[in-house]
Design goal:
Helix content is about 30%, strand content about 25%. It has about 425 residues and is an alpha/beta fold. The strands form 4 sheets. Strands 1, 2, 3, 4, 5, 16, 17 and 18 form an 8-stranded mixed β-sheet that branches. A hairpin with a 4-residue loop joins strand 1 and strand 2. The radius of gyration is 21 Å and the shape is globular. The model has no long low-confidence stretch (mean pLDDT about 95).
């Protein structure tokens, strides 16, 4: 099957392309990108689908480098299939899933199982992230080499901090030898233990135990220092504090090999949203102050923060419909991440090209996967975006099993209207 995408604004930061053009897709790869490809010029129009994409953005397929698919072990929350369906509906052609499953993805068999489920789902590309430590208990390193051969693209104990500095040092050294990143969940649990939300005026007002921002900052600083000492690279997950942004900024200026991500909720919401005690707003890191939100935005604007990831964390009502103290941490995000992030463009904080870089090009580079580009011969992984589409979030229409979304009912501007993976249309808006 051939596809012709006509008349869209093609933006590919990896090639410095920003122009109205046509894209011809043949045999699952990008064959041509030119300003006007006439149908008669395409070798043969037999078995070809043509899409008029005028007034849309045509971008390299978006990549979510931080999501939780829950399978194996927690299939009642999410499966590889439902998570992949949510991904393509949200405009993501590729997702990288964290290791906190049951059993933990700390061995070849689990990594291969996830890949098998992804192939059966035939939706998004799924890249497993393996655990740093066996059972994510922070004591013994996993078999990095074997996991890489099996298909893992990074290592992380996300959900749990690696509190043992010696173990983290060895993790960085071993991962470096395999040219793979370690993704750090930065949390000093001795400071965060028992906390339910950001420590500050709002937590005092609500009478909820707080988690101080320094619980994140300390571990960000430690892991960056370890990366500097070992001359390796580190990736900092879900940055939420002004302190962390500044520490990363200074480290980059000093030439330390550090990259970092944040998530949409950390530049959209503040801890003031918790005044209604909604458990859909309970997460880790917690929602922070307005000062932190502005710092995260500035970190995105000046390039301190390389990537935007959803940190999609589905839970069932069993874990969320409880008293705030007992509810699980986490919100879903695959189907709202792009629209929420487009607010940065509408508000003039980022250009659309910069946003695509943070949601496609940079995640591909950090994970070292051959994605994030519309170059000739590349896999035809493409996201088509309508910047001006007005729509209302409705959790009952989500492909994800999760319903723990604090943005339900919110009117948003901008949305993915088509997602193409390997030359196949995996999602298309009904109005397209």
């Amino acid at each position: 099957m051939k596809l012709m995408l006509k008349g869209g604004r093609v933006i590919d930061p990896s090639q410095n392309i920003d122009m109205v053009a046509d894209i011809l897709i043949e045999d699952g790869v990008i064959s041509r990108i030119e300003k006007d490809i006439s149908l008669s010029e395409a070798d043969s129009t037999d078995n070809m689908k043509v899409f008029d994409l005028k007034d849309t953005i045509v971008a390299p397929g978006l990549i979510d480098m931080h999501t939780h698919l829950r399978e194996p072990g927690f299939e009642y929350k999410e499966t590889v299939r439902t998570g992949s369906e949510a991904a393509v509906a949200g405009g993501f052609t590729s997702i990288a899933c964290m290791a906190n499953t049951d059993p933990v993805n700390d061995n070849r068999s689990v990594t291969e199982f996830i890949q098998t489920q992804a192939r059966l789902a035939a939706m998004a590309n799924v890249y497993p992230i393996a655990a740093v430590s066996k059972g994510q208990d922070g004591k013994i390193l996993t078999e990095f080499g074997d996991l890489k051969i099996a298909g893992a693209v990074a290592f992380s104990d996300d959900g749990n901090p690696v509190t043992d500095s010696g173990l983290m040092r060895h993790a960085l050294e071993y991962a470096y030898s395999f040219d793979m990143p370690v993704i750090s969940h930065c949390e000093d649990s001795s400071l965060s233990s028992g906390g339910l939300m950001n420590e500050g005026f709002i937590s005092t007002q609500l009478g909820l135990p707080g988690i101080p921002s320094v619980a994140e900052d300390i571990m960000v600083a430690r892991d960056i220092q370890l990366a500097d000492f070992t001359k390796t690279r580190i990736h900092i997950a879900h940055v939420s504090t002004a302190g962390s942004v500044q520490i990363v900024r200074e480290a980059r200026a000093a030439g330390i090999n550090v990259t970092a991500e944040t998530a949409p909720h950390y530049f959209i919401l503040t801890d003031e949203a918790l005044q209604q005690f909604s458990t859909d707003l309970k997460m880790y890191p917690p929602l922070r102050s307005s000062t932190d939100v502005e710092a995260v935005k500035e970190g995105l604007r000046d390039g301190t923060l390389d990537a935007i990831a959803s940190d999609h964390a589905p839970h069932s009502s069993v874990e969320k419909n409880l008293e705030f103290e007992y509810a699980a941490n986490g919100i879903i995000g695959l189907e709202t991440s792009l629209p929420l992030s487009l607010k940065l463009v509408h508000d003039g904080i980022l250009t659309i090209s910069q946003l695509i870089e943070k949601m496609s090009v940079n995640p591909a580079a950090i994970l070292k996967i051959d994605k994030g580009s519309l170059k000739t011969g590349a896999d035809a992984d493409i996201t088509v975006i309508d910047m001006n589409k007005i729509w209302t979030v409705d959790i009952h229409k989500f492909r994800s099993k999760g319903r723990n979304c604090p943005f339900n009912g919110m009117e948003l501007k901008g949305k993915a209207v088509m997602t193409i993976v390997g030359g196949d249309v995996r999602y298309a808006d009904s109005e397209l």
